[in-house]
Amino acid sequence: MAYKKVKQKLSKAEEHELARNQYDCYVRARDNGHLDYIEIAKQCDAFYRGQQWDHGDVSALDDQGRPALTINTILPTINAVLGEQSTRRMDVNFKPRGRGKQEVADVLDRLFMQISDNNKLSWVESQVFSDGLIQDRGWFDVRVDFDDHIQGEVRITAKDPLDIVIDPDAKDYDPKNWNEIFETKWMSLDEIEETYGQKKADQLRVAVELGSALGTDSVEYEENRYGDTMAGVEYNQGNKSNPEESRMLRAVRVIERQYYKLKECMFYVDSVTGDMREIPYVWGKKKREKFADDFGLEILTKTVRKVRWTVTADTVVLFDDWSPYDHFTLVPYFPYWRRGKPFGMVRNLISPQEQLNKISSQELHIVNTTANSGWIVETGSLQGMTADDLEEHGAETGLVLEFNRGSSPPAKIPPNQIPTGLDRISQKAAANIKQISGISDAMLGTDSPEVSGIAIQQKQNRGAMMIQVPLDNLTKTRQYLAEKVLNLVQKYYTEERLIQITDEQDPSKPRVPMRVNQMTPEGFVINDLTLGEYDVIISTAPSRDTFEEIQFAEAIQLRQVGVPIPDDLIVEYSHLAQKANIAERIRSMQGTNPLTPEQAELQQFQAQAAIRSTQLEIAKLEAEVQQLQSQAQLNMAKAQDTSEIDPQLKMADIQSKIAIKQEELALRERLSQMTNQVRTGQSETQAASKIAVAAMKPTGGRE
Description:
Structural class: alpha+beta
Number of helices: 20
Number of strands: 20
Shape: flat
Radius of gyration: 40 Å
Distance between the termini: 41 Å
Helix content: 40-55%
Low-confidence stretches: 1-7, 222-249, 640-644, 681-703
Largest sheet: 7 strands, antiparallel
C-alpha cells in the first residue's frame, strides 16, 4: 500500500490524542492474550528447531555431570503434516451468480492462477501453514501493489505471526466479523523516513528526543526486535549530547490498526438489475452526476461499515484515512479454532517431548554410571598405581591390576541396576507424541517392511483423517483469500490491460496473452471483470507429479483390461522429458492430429460434393418414376399384354431406392452441418486470437 498523507490536518493536541488512543487500544489487545501467545509461540518454535531444554536445567545437569539429550520427534512429525499439505494443492474456481458470465468466470479462473504464479502462492501458503502448525497462527497479507505495475497488481505475502495482534473480542474465524486488528513492528527512524517521508520522521525525532511519553514499549535503542513486547531500555539513557551518534540505534514501535467504523457512503444503483456499486469518495458532485446520467444509474446514500486505517509511532500519527480496501488486508490461518482461541500442533506436543528427553537423558546417565561403578581396595595393596589412578582408569578395556601378596585383591562394586520399566516410560512418551499428533509410522515412512503396500496405504489414510481439521481450516483460509483477491480484481482491474493467461492443463507451457476490459468500436466490453457476482469454489487436488503418476498407472491398468486408451494420452501422463513432442509425433503418425484449416476446407468441399452427387441420383430416380408412371397410364389405355414386367413393380423398386438415397442424403447433410459447426468454432477461436494479437500491435504505421 502506498501511504498517503493525512487527509485532514490535525492539530498537535488532536494528533497526540489520536496516537495515545491508538496506543491504548493496542495495549488492551496486547495484554488480553497476546503477551501469553508470544511466550508460547516462541517456545513452540524453539521446540520445533530442537532447542527443547531450559538453560537453567542444562546448567544444573552440567554441574552434576548428567547429559541433556534432545530426541526431537516434533520435527519429523510436523514435517510429515507439511508434506501432506504439499501433496494436496488447492484449486480455485469461480462460478457465475446473478449477472455474472461464464466466460468472465473462466477468465477469472486463469487470472487467479496467474496471480498465484506471480506471488509464488504455493510457497507462501506453505509458509503460512507451517506458521500455523508451529506457532498457532499464520497470516496472509493481500493488497494492491503499484511498485511494478502502473495499474497495480495483487500482492500476497506472509506475515510474522508475532507481529499480528488480533481483536481480543474475536469469536469468529472470519476477520470480517472482528472489530479491529493490529500489525506492530520496530522500525528505525531511517525506515520511517523511507516509508512515511522525512517530515514525519523529523516530527517523530523531536517527539522522542526527551524520552517517550508512552513508555519503554514505544521507543527503544535496539533495532530488529521483531516480535518483542517490552523494550526494557529507557530512551533517555541514550547519548543526548550527540543524538546523531545514537540515531541508527533508535527504534520506534509502529502500530498499524485496521478497524471498522460507520460511514455514510454513496452508491450507484442499476434500477433494472438491482446491482449496486460504491462511488469513489474522491469523486466530486459533477463527476458523480455525469456518470449516473451517462449510464442511466441512480444514486443512493446509506450508512455502512468501512475500514479505517491508522498508523502511529509514539505520539505521532503517520497515516490516518479510510482504507482503500473493503476488508482487512490480513487473512488468518488457524489450525484449530475454539471459541476465539486458536492453537496449533506443536503446543500439545511439548509435554510428551519434554518427558521423552528427560527419560532418555536419565537412561543414558544410568548407563554411564554403570560403566565404572567403583572399586573396593585394601589400603596399600596396589602396586604401580594409586587408588585415584584406579578410579580414573578402572573402566578401561584390558586393565591389569597388581596387588601385594597376602593382601585382599581389588573388588568391583556392583553397578546400580536400571530401574524396571524405565524403558517403557520412554516408549510411552514417544507413543504419546504419535497419538496426539495423529502421525503414524506409515506417514513417517518408518513402518515395518513386512507390511504390505495396501496396508501401509490404509494406515496413511487413517492418519490423514487425524489431520483433516488443520487441512479443512486451510481450505477455509484459501476461501477467504480468494474472495479478497476477487474483490481487489473487480475494484482495481477496471482499465484495459494485457494479462498473461496460464494454461490450466500444463502450467509449464508459455503464457497466452489476453486483454481484459477491452472496449470494442461498437461500445461493447470484452472480458469485463468489473461486473457480475461470482461464487468461489475451492477444490483439493493432488500435486501435479502425484496426479500424473496416478493417471499414468490407471491408464495402463485400463489398457490392460481392454479399454482402448490412445497411445498419445499414455505418453501425456508419463514423466518423459519430451512427452509433448512425442505425443505430437504419435498423433501425426496415426493421423489423429487436429485438421489444419486447409484440410478442414477440403473435407467440407468433399462432403458438399457427395451431397450434390446424392441429390443428382435422387433426381434421376425420381425422373424414372415419373417415366414409369406415364408408361403405366399409356399401357392401361392401349390395354397391352400384361406379360411384360408391370411398371408398378418397377416404380415400387425405384421408390425404395429413392427412400434409401434420401436417408443417405439426410445423413450426409447432418455430418456436413456438424463438420461446419466444428470449423466455425475453430474459426471463431482463431479470429479471437487474431483480434487479441492485433490489439497488442502499435496503432501507428503499417506492418
